[in-house]
UniProtKB/TrEMBL annotation:
<dbReference type="Pfam" id="PF13374">
    <property type="entry name" value="TPR_10"/>
</dbReference>
<keyword id="KW-0677">Repeat</keyword>
<dbReference type="InterPro" id="IPR011990">
    <property type="entry name" value="TPR-like_helical_dom_sf"/>
</dbReference>
<keyword id="KW-0802">TPR repeat</keyword>
<feature type="compositionally biased region" description="Polar residues">
    <location>
        <begin position="15"/>
        <end position="32"/>
    </location>
</feature>
<dbReference type="Pfam" id="PF13181">
    <property type="entry name" value="TPR_8"/>
</dbReference>
<feature type="region of interest" description="Disordered">
    <location>
        <begin position="1"/>
        <end position="32"/>
    </location>
</feature>
<dbReference type="InterPro" id="IPR019734">
    <property type="entry name" value="TPR_rpt"/>
</dbReference>
<protein>
    <submittedName>
        <fullName>TPR-like protein</fullName>
    </submittedName>
</protein>
Length: 816
């Protein structure tokens, strides 16, 4: 407001006061008070609340003096002025003052109601009780709110039952009190009562709306505005009813209520846009799905009522998207949230970008975009999700910057004190990094997640330094978010080769998870949801930690981490488990942990320990495989994965046997791995068999090596093993040639060339072929030695030389 208009406002107020100072009679004083009340109402309507409060206080001062005569009229006028003042104080967010003032109004009106049976007095008392209930609700005094609103509802029911003139207006007041009462029940988590009361409010608003349309008992000029308000109130009740139903997980019923609210709000928008009273009337009505008129001259900011209608429609569309999503209709959810985004983008653009309201609107837009990115991610539309979540991050960074103006280093957030903004930014950064990782852009994902870690550290510091009682309750969740972001950061860093950095960040996550988990040997509490989640995250982090340590050769530490991970996974296994019990998720992950632990033990030459550990993994994986039927579809993805995992553990067990010289056990075990992998290749078509053929090749090569070691072992002379070793090596050669031929054919494919697809490298496959040829040459040479006295000896030796020459030629090409 300009200085000129401010002066003018005070001038009007001073003029009224000067008139009062010259007046001495009660009639003149009452006139002055009336003028001050009218002036206060004008100030409030224009948003000048301080002037409205000042004017109302001066009116009350006059009316207190007039009320000394104890007349009905003077006391009623004083109560009315107090009631009005409370509304201005409430609009100014001065809730405590509003409660104090409305209590005075209630006190006066209750005495007047006791002395008079007039309907208007009881209606006025109900109105003040209604206000009282709303104010104390905003202060969190829900039981006091409940008491006041229940009394207001009781009085208004009686007034409706009287069937007085303007009945539909009395019922509208009752519906409004029922609406507020339902809100209070909801705040007390008494959802059954909240739904029941709100359903009655909806029914009464329907009757009010029909009554106003059929036989409006107001002046002709007020008919349309009355009908408009009735429908607007009905839509608001339906919107809130949907919220309460959704909290009861009645999502289908919530969606029905919300969709009806949307239909009504669209209808109100069409009416307003076509109204000659609108600032920019639009003659062409909107369709059911259209949000904005196509008129290029359409100006949203010039019409406050339009702003309110669009705001409410966006809120209902936003909620409808949630109900669609929870009902499994993601396409409908996306359509609804995109309409919400369109509205909220226009709402934000219609406001001064330097105002506080702009940032509020911007925050709402960010929330809707965040929802859209989530829905798209659920559909695995990662590229589309990426665009939405990037805009969310940009918005939320901007909102944080508003509260972090003193920060000299962008992106550090070291001085930001707005915890809600930081938490929202953290979540969007986390999702952005996750989306980038899904698109395999791990370098960018690591950079974004590093920023997320900084934000989460700031949130934890704010909670640690806070004196608020809820800070202690929020701290474990904030620390869990910090641990989760640190853990994922380590994974992304590991993907780009920054293993040492990954180890440091994962240590931070492990330290937090350890604090949130009961000590080893301690039982989990009865309400152990949080503890179980933390224990699972700790076990997963320790498993990843062991993997990173192993990658940099820190095997003793890797073994310690792997053993702790295995111990924690065992704590997660349900008690009273028997061999007939299905393998739990914790057991399945325990198997993979034991598999990795055995590998680290073998690197420390602790092969006996490795054998003991890997056998535990094999036992679990055998049970997993036995739980899945392969009769109908042996190529089922889950079955194939489980069989491949089992064959990997069996393969490693065979290697550990071989290292300690138990060649017979090694050969028998490796043959099991070969049998499983051979079957996997057999039951998959050529398009998917390659991934299994690589495993089969590895097992065949190691099987041939086991035969060779068995044959050359001191004191052994077994003529059966060389032929078997030759057979395994020959199959390895055949598999290698097949894999290499597939890659060469793929690289020469015309479609791939047209698409400029990068050719797949063949170096590793050629090296494997050379190794297979070498193993074949060794086996053939051993067989030639066994059959040296027979004519076949020269044949085996000749074939051995051919294999060696080809292997040497390949190694020469590869410069190995």
């Amino acid at each position: 407001m300009s200085a000129l208009s401010e002066t003018s406002d005070h001038g009007d107020l001073n003029a009224v006061n000067n008139h009062h100072n010259q007046s001495i009679g009660p009639d003149e004083s009452n006139t002055t008070a009336n003028s001050l009340d009218e002036l206060a109402a004008e100030f409030a309507e224009g948003g000048r609340l301080n002037l409205a409060i000042d004017s109302a206080n001066r009116a009350i001062q006059i009316r207190r003096a007039l009320a000394q005569d104890n007349s009905f009229e003077s006391k009623s006028n004083l109560a009315n002025s107090l009631h009005s003042l409370s509304t201005y104080l409430a609009e100014a967010q001065r809730w405590d003052d509003a409660v104090e003032v409305i209590e005075q109004s209630i006190h006066i009106r209750r005495k007047l109601a006791d002395d008079s049976r007039h309907v208007s007095v009881r209606g006025a008392l109900a109105s003040s009780l209604h206000r009282m209930g709303s104010y104390v609700n905003n202060l969190g005094y829900y039981n006091l709110s409940l008491q006041a609103l229940q009394e207001a509802v009781s009085i208004r029911r009686q007034l409706v039952d009287l069937d007085v003139p303007k009945y539909h207006l009395q019922e509208a007041d009752l519906a409004a009190s029922l609406h507020s009462l339902a809100s209070t029940f909801s705040s007390l988590d008494r959802l059954d009562e909240a739904v029941k009361v709100m359903e009655e409010a909806v029914q009464r608003h329907r009757r009010v709306s029909k009554s106003a349309e059929a036989a409006p008992l107001v002046s002709a000029g007020e008919i349309q505005s009355t009908i408009f308000k009735c429908k607007d109130d009905l839509a608001e009740c339906l919107h809130d009813l949907a919220v309460y139903l959704s909290r009861q997980e009645q999502f289908q019923h919530a969606l029905f209520a919300c969709q009806e609210a949307i239909v009504i709000r669209r209808s109100l928008l069409r009416s307003r846009l076509a109204s000659p009273h609108a600032h920019n009337p639009i003659n062409s009505a909107m369709s059911a799905s259209t949000v904005f008129p196509s008129d290029p001259n359409f100006n949203l900011s010039s019409d406050p009522q339009l702003l309110s209608l669009y705001t409410n429609l966006a809120s209902s569309l936003d909620n409808a998207s949630i109900y669609h999503c929870t009902s499994g209709r993601l396409d409908a959810a996306i359509d609804s949230i995109q309409q919400t985004i369109d509205i909220r983008r226009r709402l934000a653009s219609s406001i001064d970008p330097n105002s506080g309201l702009f940032y509020f609107r911007l925050g709402q837009l960010g929330n809707s975009l965040y929802r859209l990115s989530t829905y798209l991610a659920n559909l695995e539309c990662w590229k589309d999700s990426l665009g939405a979540i990037q805009e969310v991050v940009d918005i939320r960074r901007r909102l944080v910057t508003v509260n972090d103006a003193s920060s000299s280093t962008p992106g550090q957030y070291s001085t930001c004190t707005s915890k809600p903004d930081l938490v929202n930014l953290s979540r969007s950064l986390f999702d952005l990094a996750t989306c980038l990782a899904q698109l395999e852009d791990y370098a960018e994902a690591a950079e974004i997640m590093e920023e997320c870690v900084r934000v989460n550290r700031r949130v934890v510091l704010l909670l640690l330094s806070s004196s608020e009682p809820e800070a202690d309750l929020e701290l474990p969740g904030a620390e869990a978010d910090l641990a989760s972001s640190s853990r994922l950061l380590s994974i992304y860093q590991g993907e780009v080769g920054k293993v040492e950095d990954a180890i440091i960040n994962l240590e931070d996550a492990i330290e937090i998870y350890r604090r949130q988990v009961p000590a080893a040997g301690a039982a989990l509490s009865n309400d152990a949801t949080t503890e179980v989640k933390a224990l699972r995250h700790l076990a997963e982090s320790l498993k990843e930690f062991a993997s990173f340590l192993g990658r940099v050769g820190r095997y003793p530490e890797a073994v310690a981490a792997g053993e702790e991970a295995a111990s924690n996974y065992r704590r997660l296994i349900p008690p009273n488990r028997t061999l007939a019990t299905r393998v739990s998720p914790a057991e399945a992950t325990l198997a993979s942990t034991l598999h990795l632990l055995a590998d680290d033990l073998s690197k420390l030459s602790r092969c006996h320990d490795a054998i003991s550990v890997i056998q535990q993994a094999i036992d679990i994986r055998h049970r997993q495989v036995s739980e899945i039927s392969y009769v109908q579809d042996d190529a089922d993805d889950t079955a194939s994965t489980l069989q491949m995992d089992l064959s990997s553990s069996i393969h490693n067990l065979a290697i550990y046997y071989s290292v300690i010289g138990r060649y017979d056990d090694a050969i028998g075990t490796m043959r099991q791995a070969v049998d499983i992998r051979r079957r996997l290749v057999m039951f998959h078509d050529s398009a998917t068999a390659d991934e299994f053929e690589g495993g089969l090749l590895d097992s065949l090569l190691n099987l041939a090596d086991c035969y060779h070691r068995r044959f050359t072992d001191a004191g052994r002379d077994d003529s059966a093993h060389p032929p078997l070793g030759v057979s395994a090596a020959q199959e390895a050669v055949d598999v290698s040639r097949g894999l290499l031929a597939d890659v060469v054919a793929e690289n020469e494919d015309e479609d791939n060339k047209k698409a400029n697809a990068a050719p797949r490298p063949t170096v590793d496959l050629e090296a494997q072929l050379a190794r297979a040829l070498y193993q074949l040459a060794v086996g053939l040479g051993a067989r030639a030695k066994v059959e040296a006295e027979h004519s076949n000896g020269k044949v085996w030796r000749s074939r051995s030389l051919v294999a060696v020459k080809e292997a040497v030629a390949i190694y020469g090409r590869l410069k190995v």
